[in-house]
Amino acid sequence: MADPKTGRIVSQDDWKRTQVRMPQELYDDLTNYAENKNISLNTAMITLMTKGLEPTKHFDLVRESATITDDVIEKIANKIVDRMKKAP
């Protein structure tokens, strides 16, 4: 099997095996999701966990952009102050 992101062939050594306990209702939702998508339970869990972690990545990007914006605003404000000081 190939990794969809890298195209590299992956083996069982590239995977971590674990057990998960969850409420029955959540398990039912998960199995319904897998059946509706015609995918395995394992694939459903990986898909949903990956989607759940994506907002964290987006939040980090937004926070970084906000910092850059704050820096730009401060530079502009400083230039305005400098020009006002030089004005007659």
TrEMBL record:
<protein>
    <recommendedName>
        <fullName>Toxin-antitoxin system HicB family antitoxin</fullName>
    </recommendedName>
</protein>
<dbReference type="InterPro" id="IPR013321">
    <property type="entry name" value="Arc_rbn_hlx_hlx"/>
</dbReference>
<dbReference type="GO" id="GO:0006355">
    <property type="term" value="P:regulation of DNA-templated transcription"/>
</dbReference>
<dbReference type="InterPro" id="IPR010985">
    <property type="entry name" value="Ribbon_hlx_hlx"/>
</dbReference>
